[in-house]
Design goal:
two-stranded antiparallel sheet; alpha/beta
């Protein structure tokens, strides 16, 4: 049965948020520590939270109430740190200027780097202790972050993402033989891979962030049909931004007031369901106790109600 989800940061989960989620009618919680240049540091912070009995207890309470818990992670910079890349120059990506750099991502044609990512993915799984078999571990949060070396230049950003996903999945399955891993269709990787086919256990996670940027439109929707045909509809998942108040606030505090566009959300969900997607979720960051103190409590239940089967929209 398709799940209805909501994504927040580990720092935003408290006792009141647990109650709000339990009252909402949702059944999927994603935990997203953050992206950008601090993604690895924030992932380390999440791991520390998971060792805190109070935090883990809140997750356990949600699981007992019917929630499935997942982690949504820009994890490449944690899996393959800059210090490791400095020790292995041939693992570094080549940027569009022809330079080997350690800023983001890696050389997707390096078998040694891929094997290292596999080992680190196993280690990360042991730290997350995730009960769900579905993992969402992504490359770095950047445009034009793929490798342009002689071996990689014929591989699109989407091909390189899928190669990375396969390396991650191999590591996850050493920890959990039933693990699956998401291919994040997002920014540069919104197009279908051209030269690499998905292995069993890879599922589509469609995240059309550009439609939410100033001047954005629904052009990313044109990729849905080919992506669904390529990855299959049965396990495909939507990752939207309907209530991503971190994006609406420009990723700066204090948070702005978030106004849910119910009609737009319902239209989108109807379209996604007709396309064949299963689970549907949205980022919901910057809607925590700090937001409540400024603007009053945002209704997660109202958001969840938009997830119900749309009728005439």
């Amino acid at each position: 049965m398709a799940k209805k989800g909501f994504i927040l940061a580990h720092t935003e989960l408290d006792e009141r948020m647990v109650e709000r989620l339990k009252e909402s009618g949702l059944d999927l919680l994603g935990v997203h520590p953050g992206g950008g240049i601090k993604a690895a540091e924030l992932l380390d912070e999440l791991i520390e939270y998971l060792n805190d009995p109070r935090f883990y207890g809140m997750l356990d309470e949600l699981e007992k109430s019917g929630f499935e818990i997942e982690y949504e992670l820009h994890g490449l910079n944690w899996l393959l740190t800059k210090s490791v890349l400095d020790c292995h120059p041939d693992w570094k990506r080549v940027n569009s200027n022809g330079e080997r750099v350690t800023d983001y991502n890696f050389c997707a044609s390096s078998e040694d780097a891929l094997n290292y990512i596999t080992d680190r993915s196993y280690y990360l799984a042991t730290l997350l202790k995730q009960k769900s078999h579905r993992y969402n571990i992504w490359m770095d949060d950047v445009r034009d972050g793929h490798c342009h070396c002689e071996k990689c230049k014929s591989l699109s950003p989407s091909d390189q993402m899928l190669i990375f996903c396969h390396a991650v999945l191999r590591g996850l399955r050493k920890y959990d033989p039933e693990a699956t891993q998401s291919y994040l269709a997002y920014m540069d990787t919104i197009k279908v891979p051209e030269k690499v086919a998905p292995e069993e256990g890879i599922f589509l996670e469609f995240a059309p962030i550009d439609r939410w940027r100033p001047g954005g439109n629904d052009a990313e929707f044109e990729y849905i049909k080919p992506l669904i045909e390529f990855f299959g509809a049965e396990t495909s998942k939507v990752l939207e931004y309907w209530v991503d108040n971190s994006l609406f606030s420009g990723w700066k505090k204090p948070p702005k007031k978030c106004v849910l566009d119910r009609e737009r959300m319902k239209r989108d969900i109807k379209m996604y369901r007709e396309a064949g997607f299963g689970d549907i979720t949205s980022f919901g960051l910057y809607l925590d106790s700090e937001y409540t103190a400024l603007h009053g409590e945002f209704s997660i239940k109202e958001y969840a109600e938009c997830m119900d089967e749309p009728k005439d929209v």
